[in-house]
Structure formats: C-alpha cells, structure tokens
C-alpha cells in the first residue's frame, strides 16, 4: 500500500513540474490517475489549475483520466470548475471537447462571477441551443408602435440547458447580455414551459414576447436584428421550447480569404458585428430555392446558400469541391472553423464560382 501511495505522490510531483514523459511512464507502471490528495485534487484537477500545465492536462485525458472527477465536498469542484474559476479558456475548451459535464452550471457561474468573458463565451457556445444578436424592445408600448427603432437596443441572446443530463421536462434558460464584452448577463429567465406570444407569420420585423411563468410581470419582447430575420425568429422560438439548433457556434469576424492565410485560432469577441451564423448538420437537407419539395444534399446544387438561406451559393470549398454556400458565409467558416459544412473536411481555400 505504501509503495502504491508513493507512486501516486510521484505522479503529483510530475504533474507540478510538467513532466509529461514521467507521467506516461508511471501510468504504464499502474499508477492510479484518480488518486486524490488531502485537498481533494486528482492529477487532472491539479493540472487544470494552471495555464502552463495545459499539455499535462491533455496528456492525462489521453491516458484516461476522468474529466468529471470531484471530491465528495464541494460537490461541483470538477476539473472544469477549477479551469473556469481561473479563466483558463484553452483548458476549458479541452475539457468540454472531452465530455466534461456542466451540471448546475457551476463552472459557468464561476466564469461569470470573475468576469472571464472568453470562458463564458466558450462554455455557452458549447452548450447553447440558440445564440445570436437580437433587438430588445423597452419603454411604453404605444411609442413602440410609432418609433420601434428608437425604443429597442441590440442585445446578445443565448438559450442554454441548466444541466448536462437533460431532465424531463427539459429545463432551459434565456440569457441576455448587453454586449459580447460582458461576462455577466443583464437578464436570466427560466424557460419552463414558457409562454410565448408568437406571430402567426414570421415577418422580418415581427417581434416575439416571452412571459416568465414564475413572475407574470417579467417579460421580454425581442425581434431579429438582421435583415430577413424570419429564420432567426423561428430558431429562437423553437429553442425556447427546447428544440436545439443545428450548430451552436458564435459569429466570427469576416476576413479576406487568401490562399496562404492560416485559419484563426480563436474569435475576437470585441470585433463581432454581424448576425449569427448557423451551420447545417453534416448531410442535412435543404429546400430548393424555388420552394418545391425536392431537397438537395449536394452542397448548394439548389443555387441557394445552405447557411444564410438568402444569398446564392457561389463559393466552392477547396479541396473537397462542395459548393456549400455564398462567399460571405464560407469566408466566415474558413476563418473560424475551417471545415466544410457538408463533409467537415478541412478548407484550404474558398473560391468564387460563376454559374452560366
């Protein structure tokens, strides 16, 4: 027993010093990756407390460390909790991509409390069923009829589940931020069977009112902030009912595409100005531009952009060859995700095609 314990203590020493090879060697010798010290730290928890130990955290996960390990108390002190509490954006993304739970939203609450904006965006982007710029109406309703633009403000809206293990009925929250620079939301509204005042027809300038069932006096009136926002309003209403959207990525900065330009490592939350990007699922079908029943799967053969659903598809992804959308949308995808929205192959270049 003493010999095993000394192995585990040696493992912690290797973690602190960033000795990746030593960690791998001890793992081959049978060291327990889930052993906890007196403070309740596993090797992975310890690695998630410092940005310089990112490579160590990555190695431990590759070796099979439990990304959701936590001591008996406090219950939510998981690796994700500690990384979010310290604003370690890169480590947070690593944990989320490897199945870290966000139960009770404790990591998100920590990131908001300590105002780690990029960590808040990373967690919400990973778990949200809707995100995008919208217009929030305020002030007297009568004045809103005559001058709606003067009584509305642009806000960033996300809808997120309150648990990584969906209960029945599903529970979601509507969160409103004054801007993407803010880590702390201005409004948080529970969406338990929300009362939605939806219009019968989704016109671009139509608004949707959400009434809080717990507090009938608390309501929000929102409209799309982009032109031709019918689809965004539909996505928003569906998300309020718990229907997730195809993709949960934030908008990205439009960049000029050059053959030699590498993809951006991250998005700049202060530079985002355009409306939200919604990417179709791989292999999803899209109605033809004429509105007929014939669905297309060939990445834009209908002549309509599969992403914004408005512009013609005039951009081709190289080297996969899919005509997947308009140049504007594909440029944004190339600069952020660098993946074809049809086959998920890496995009080396986006080229404009001319239809005859």
Automatic annotation (TrEMBL):
**CDD domains tied to this protein:** RING-HC_XBAT35-like
Q: Please report the residue spans annotated as repeat (ANK).
A: 39-72, 75-107
Annotated RING-type domain residues = 305-344
The UniProt keyword set, sorted, is: ANK repeat, Metal-binding, Repeat, Zinc, Zinc-finger
Is Zinc-finger included in the keywords of this UniProt record?
A: yes
Q: Which InterPro entries match?
A: Ank_repeat_dom-contain_49, Ankyrin_rpt, Ankyrin_rpt-contain_sf, Znf_RING, Znf_RING/FYVE/PHD
Superkingdom of origin organism: Eukaryota
Name recorded for this polypeptide: RING-type domain-containing protein
